[in-house]
Amino acid sequence: MQFTELGIDSRLAQQLSHQGIVSPTEIQAQAVPTAIAGHDVFAQSKTGSGKTLAFLLPAVHRIMKQKALSKRDPRALIIAPTRELATQVFNQCRLLIASTNISLVKILGGENFNDQVKALRKNPHIVVATPGRLADHLSQNTVQLNGLELLIFDEADRMLDLGFEEQLNLINQSADHRLRQTLLFSATLDHAQVEVTSRQLLKTPKRIILSDAQQKHDDIEQALYFADHLDHKEALLKHLVTDDSVGQCIIFTATRNDTQRISELLKEMDISAVGLAGDLTQAKRLDIMDSFSRGLFKVLVTTDVASRGLDLLSVTHVINFDLPKQAEEYVHRIGRTGRAGFKGVAVSFVGPKDWKSYLAIKSYLHEIPDFKVIEGLEGKFKGLRPPKPAKKVNPKSKDTVKKVKKKPYKKPIKKNKKPIPAPFDVDGAAPLRRKPKPTEE
């Protein structure tokens, strides 16, 4: 199938051809015609399947082909949960509209608010934003959504997990009119809150569920290794990252401090590594991601900040130094490799502190690989035993505590409370009475 068969403008198909993108993926083949037809879309597809183009193509096509509802308000609004994912969407959209007159603006937290106000006053056709900062602009009346034609939510489950429900409701209410079309995309939709929120955001949507997030990703080879402690994890990491098969690699850690420590550890091994954490400034984070995408670093050490939306085809390996707390996040982490038909490897270290997460992932996924062993780096840890259930006491059992028979009640003997007559000893005891000796005559 060719992109022209999806009903998109020929200029868009030509632009995709210049980028080397010839055939649509499965999610694109189903979602693009449905969205172009004007339906709301509720779509799920695995990571690396091309979801971003699946909503960008109908958005740009609509702006090219249809008359605007408003001359001032944005025509399409794309909401992404993190700055990194929003930047990724922005960059892909910029390539798509390169040969058109369509204007594009990025509105992210951590950037200058007044500069964003100036950009919004130029009446851009498309706005890519994070929910928190866009809500700030709506509260300040620096952007209006009365004429918005297309509202797109990317990774809706992640936005709800991050606590953006209030902001999503504000955005929805600000653009609540009958002509608005809404598209909701994610890699995982088996999320109770997403189901509830989708009923508020979408109007009789077409559901496109192509793959279960819990199914095995055929393009990703998964491997698990037991680790006794932190030093053991570091020894395993050193062995794996020096393998010749590793191209670019993303290492996921639990904390910001670990990102810095592990990146310094790799630098001491003469491996070009960089750490990315949420406490960095937006400019610094974008600079790190840009440098990594251009191949200036071999290893990116990060928290879950980079677990979604980063489309980097050169990433051959993902290493979970620490397992995520949520099983769904594991799917997004390993999805940073094995993208667009390329093969990838996802490695996870499982120590005592990771065992609870491992059990959650095991119950969430339909298939999970067996543990592997590296010669010379075998671990003693093999998992934690489940706690023994408390014994149930059977009231009819002979082992129960025997009832103690009550002794019959006896009236207490009344004691003589009269004082002991003198003479008496100093300690209260009466002296012995002796018979007087007989007197001699």
UniProtKB/TrEMBL annotation:
Residues 384-441 are annotated as: Disordered. Residues 32-207 form the Helicase ATP-binding domain. Residues 236-385 form the Helicase C-terminal domain. Keywords: ATP-binding, Helicase, Hydrolase, Nucleotide-binding. The keyword Acetylation does not apply. Residues 384-395, 403-418, 432-441 have a biased composition (Basic residues). The keyword ATP-binding applies. Residues 1-29 form the DEAD-box RNA helicase Q domain. It holds the Pfam family Helicase_C. One of its GO terms (molecular function) is ATP binding. A motif (Q motif) lies at residues 1-29. GO terms for cellular component: cytosol. Belongs to the DEAD box helicase family. This is DEAD/DEAH box helicase.
